[in-house]
């Protein structure tokens, strides 16, 4: 491994902390959210099963990802996974769209045993679920991992994060190849499923302007291979490189103006594209000046659900953001201290 990559992977591991002790028979979380199913607005049920977590996070991990905080080092026995599932499915009657997350890859059989996955899929069909969304790294997306006795229509969310190799390697610390991503998308389509790609906006180390450029490039790259794209503005998760840099004022999450910019520039890429920023409007999530944030978040939600054009409120802070983006080419990446932002006048 080249020296710089080795240092980054060591850094990612160093800032991690051992997760708190968690109850093994209780899922991480359950909630409902508004979604679109066959063109109609529906309520979708979402659950996160507590597992051993992402294999990549155990090995190295991504710079912005704090999912390991919810996992159990050493793993969760199938018996406990099943107990979690009973609790989840009891809350899942009357939902046609269900999302099952794991803080890792549902299709990794060492994280979610195949028989357990089969049981989940069978139960979902019996409960009348029409579509299930699961997440996976591309390396586990194979037909043999998606063969169940019966299942709702499967949607696989794949974290492409960035299609720029140097950003993926040096800013995200994720090993994913173009070939591997395309192969995984094809495998999902071959079993009659659909693919949702996650693309980051402004991973750690990138400045505002370079973040926007990278996201637009990545969305255009992914569009021909996927059925929808979710733009994920990077938010600050606990015990991550992102958090360390944010605390040191070396980097901050993107502005909400940047989210709008990306969606508008990608309107014609031929694939549904939207953003539902985690922690939007807070210091740890994508945010603006604080005065215009809620209006933009409302508009992004409307855009996600109905496809309506995003409304841009009149706010002074847009000028600051614009200048910041224009300066991207002069300003080195990873150098946007809050002090600079506060004192910035044009
Ligand atoms: S972002 Fe995905 S691949 Fe990266 S550590 Fe987190 S769960 Fe694993
Ligand atoms: Zn504002």
Report the sheet with the most strands, covering strand number, pairing sense and barrel closure.
8 strands, mixed
How many individual domains? 1
Broad shape:
globular
Radius of gyration: 20 Å
Report the β-strand fraction as a percent range: 15-25%
**Number of β-strand runs:** 8
Number of helices: 12
Distance between the termini: 42 Å
Give the overall pLDDT as a whole number: 93
List each distinct ligand once.
iron/sulfur cluster, zinc ion
What is the fourth-level CATH superfamily?
Answer: Aldolase class I
CATH class categorisation: Alpha Beta
Account of the protein in words:
With 346 residues, the protein is an alpha/beta fold. It has a single domain (3-343), classed as TIM Barrel, CATH 3.20.20. Helices cover 37% and strands 16% of the residues. It is built from twelve helices and eight strands. The protein has an eight-stranded mixed sheet. Strand 6, helix 7 and strand 7 (228-233) form a beta-alpha-beta unit. Helix 3 packs parallel to helix 4 and helix 7 (208-222) runs parallel beside helix 9. The longest helix has 15 residues, at 208-222. The relative contact order is 0.10. Iron/sulfur cluster is lined by residues 54, 56-57, 61-62, 65, 67, 104, 137, 159, 174.
């Amino acid at each position: 491994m080249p020296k710089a990559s080795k240092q980054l992977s060591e850094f990612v591991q160093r800032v991690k902390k051992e997760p708190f002790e968690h109850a093994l028979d209780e899922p991480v979380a359950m909630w409902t959210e508004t979604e679109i199913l066959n063109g109609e607005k529906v309520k979708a049920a979402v659950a996160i099963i507590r597992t051993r977590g992402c294999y990549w996070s155990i090995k190295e991990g991504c710079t912005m990802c704090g999912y390991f905080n919810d996992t159990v080092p050493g793993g969760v026995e199938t018996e406990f996974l099943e107990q979690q599932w009973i609790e989840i499915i009891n809350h899942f009657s009357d939902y046609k769209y269900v999302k099952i997350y794991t803080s890792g890859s549902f299709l990794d059989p060492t994280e979610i045993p195949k028989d357990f996955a089969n049981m989940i899929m069978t139960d979902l069909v019996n409960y009348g679920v029409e579509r299930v969304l699961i997440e996976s790294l591309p390396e586990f997306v194979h037909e043999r991992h998606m063969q169940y006795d019966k299942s709702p229509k499967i949607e696989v969310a794949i974290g492409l994060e960035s299609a720029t190799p140097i950003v993926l390697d040096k800013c995200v610390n994720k090993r994913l190849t173009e070939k591997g991503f395309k192969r995984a998308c094809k495998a999902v389509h071959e079993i009659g499923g659909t693919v949702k790609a996650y693309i980051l906006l402004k991973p750690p180390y990138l400045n505002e302007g370079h973040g926007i450029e990278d996201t637009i490039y990545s969305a255009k790259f992914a569009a021909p291979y996927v059925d929808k794209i979710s733009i994920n503005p990077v938010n600050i998760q606990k015990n991550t490189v992102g958090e360390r840099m944010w605390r040191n004022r070396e980097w901050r999450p993107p502005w909400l103006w940047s989210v709008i910019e990306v969606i508008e520039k990608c309107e014609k890429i031929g694939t549904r594209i939207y953003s539902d920023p985690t922690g939007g409007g807070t210091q740890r999530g994508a945010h603006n000046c604080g005065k215009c944030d809620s209006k933009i978040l409302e508009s992004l939600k409307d855009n996600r659900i109905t496809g309506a054009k995003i409304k841009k409120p009149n706010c002074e802070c847009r000028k600051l953001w614009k200048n910041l983006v224009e300066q991207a080419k002069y300003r080195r990446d990873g150098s946007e201290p809050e002090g600079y932002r506060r004192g910035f006048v044009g």
